[in-house]
Amino acid sequence: MEHLGRALCIITGASKGFGRALAKEMARVVKPGSVFVLVARSGDELQTLKTELVESELEVRCVVLDLSQMEAPERVVQTAKEYFSPDIEHVILVNNAAALGDVSRFSKSFTSMAEVDSYLSFNVSSALCLTARVLQAFPKQSGLCRCVINISSLCALKPFSSWVLYCTGKAARDMMFKVLAEEEPDLRVLNYAPGPLDTDMQLVARTRTGEMSLRKAFADMFDESQLLTCETSCAKLMKLLLEDKYKSGDHIDFYDM
Question: Residue 35's pLDDT is what?
């Protein structure tokens, strides 16, 4: 494909970092008249992004909310439905929003169920519930391609000491979307690991990680300019989507391509 057609794109965690870069990159590969629903907790940063995207002849709507709240999936879907029209050819949901969690502590310190539940609510439960609501709102129909993307991580596959919350959340999300791919054969599902990105999250990783050898490894990557820009990784994701050759449900890392 040369482009993704006239699309309805829902992107969570769109206010900064990878989500922000993704919105700008995706705007280049959709047709004019496409609709972008941008979701994040920071309204000011979403509005700035909206201003930048309007030049691309898009309809851009900002939804400012915390995805861990019970009403969040419904609010996102209601906004998307308001701007859905029969000429939409592609519905794309990008589950990008995620939190690193407290990486300064080790597994045996997490004795509070409320703390763990809060983390999983935002990082796992919200992704499943939002995806389910989107699929219900935009069911299978002739002429409509549907795609769900989970922004994954090497941490979904490999254990990192002192990163128990993040690794658990990413592994759960990968499996969640693998199951979805089995259940919905007409749906395109992709777990994309964007590689080590130069973001605020990486700053926390190299300054607060409890496992000192891991903290040093992150710091060395930064010092040796081994981190990827969000734009570089987003370009690879766009290539994956445009070529559309991946097996639905696959976990594909930036370095696999």
Answer: 97
